[in-house]
Amino acid sequence: MIYENWLYTGSLQIKSVYCNPLRENLKVECLVLGGGFAGLHAALRLADAGKKVVLIEKRICGGSSSGQSGGFLTPESEEDMQNLIASVGMEEAKKIYDIPLTGVSLIVDTIKKNSFNCDLRKQDSLYLSIKKSHDSLITEEAETRKEMGLPYEVLDSKGLKKFHPGKSYRVGLKYPGSYGINSFAYTQEMKNLLLKKGVRIFEDSEVHRMEGNTAFTHLGSVTAKNIFICIDKMRSEFNEEVSKKYYHIQTYVAISEPLSESEIKAIYPQGEMMCWDSRWTYSYYRPVADGRLLLGGSSPFTSYLANFRYSPHVINRTISELKNNFPPLSDVKFSNYWSGLIDVTKDLVPIADDDSTSRSIYYALGCAGLPWAAFCGDYIARRALNPSKTEDLSKYLGMRRKYFVPDFVQRLFGKKVAFAVNHFREMLK
């Protein structure tokens, strides 16, 4: 097993040009920083509104979190629905749930409208209990979906044998409305679309500093009327106050060699689904192109590390657990693995808001999930284009909302501890 993002290899059929680094000083209407899902969707909304747009990416479009993702398009967040309801009530929880739900539609509609080649797969979701004490998580989530009028099916052990006969699974919650994609391929298709629409894209152009409405790279600068900052893993030198607002969780992903038809049937007798289990540091998997299986997981130890940890120990353990669950896969090899840092906020809901000191600078940050990222990028662009006709979601996505662990505690104990404590509290609600 080699350390390499297989999604890049799986996107070789898409021809996309490399965009040269910024080597000039420009003045434009709109500047987007970041070529992931949030930045690409912000740029698309602005370009469709007739704005002159420049997009700057520090590596290549899709070269960071977006292009390393497992490609799950589901309206679920890192927070279970019953926890959201406990925090904000049913009506408010519905509004938050609609955010990634809209993000899923935004991505799928863009794929279909523009005939993107990114392995779009309609895959029902399956949430799985792995121990008796976790069964209540499934039943509570089912009750919540019933209360919200959402479709679902609870599968007992007998039902799971029909749909997903893993040895360790006890109860499952199955529901529609989710999809899988090759996330890196999607970013390349989006890049091509934006170039056709006249967006100027500069890659390998990291912004080193901001002065007012001007962003400076090593070789050039861009001054813009409106700036949309959609970057991940922001350094404190870029913006010290904003960088305190979000952190990251490390996860690992692996890809299998192509499976035989009988091996696929052993996992999915009734058709493919995307699955994840009930642990806090859950494992997740789904079928992808060429009959392969994409598998991901993390651990409490590696989740909150400040920097990448490249060891295959965590993903090897996740692979072993999968094979123990599905003995017909015992001889299947996993060819590639890679790790990624998923940006999160302290309450697991992203930030999509304007700057407190400048209403012409907007942020989309801490988007744990592709649908959240797409929505947040599109949302901040809509706010800039037509604020009076754009719904006000600052109550949920605002930069200045309060968290369980306040900033002064974070200053005392550090960022890693503050985020871990806050996330642990969210999990216990």
Explained architecture:
- With 429 residues, the protein is α/β, with parallel strands linked by helices.
- Among the domains are: 19-69 and 183-245 and 347-428, FAD/NAD(P)-binding domain, CATH 3.50.50.60; 124-177, no CATH class.
- Helix content is 37%, strand content 23%.
- It contains 16 helices and 20 strands.
- The chain has helices at 6-9, 37-48, 65-68, 81-88, 90-114, 135-148, 157-163, 183-196, 240-243, 261-267, 300-303, 313-325, 370-385, 394-397, 407-413, 415-428; strands spanning 2-3, 25-33, 53-56, 72-73, 121-122, 124-128, 153-155, 172-175, 179-180, 200-202, 209-211, 214-216, 221-229, 246-256, 273-277, 284-287, 293-297, 334-345, 351-354, 361-365.
- The strands form three sheets. Strands 1-18-14-17-16-15-6-8-7 form a nine-stranded mixed β-sheet, with helices on both faces.
- The model has no long low-confidence stretch (mean pLDDT 90).
Major β-sheet strand ordering: 1-18-14-17-16-15-6-8-7
Number of strands: 20
How confident is the prediction overall: mean pLDDT?
90
Separation of the first and last Cα atoms: 39 Å
The CATH topology annotation of the domain at 19-69 and 183-245 and 347-428 reads as FAD/NAD(P)-binding domain
Radius of gyration: 21 Å
Kindly name the structural category.
alpha/beta
CATH architecture heading of the domain at 19-69 and 183-245 and 347-428: 3-Layer(bba) Sandwich
Number of helices: 16
The CATH homologous superfamily of the domain at 19-69 and 183-245 and 347-428 is named FAD/NAD(P)-binding domain
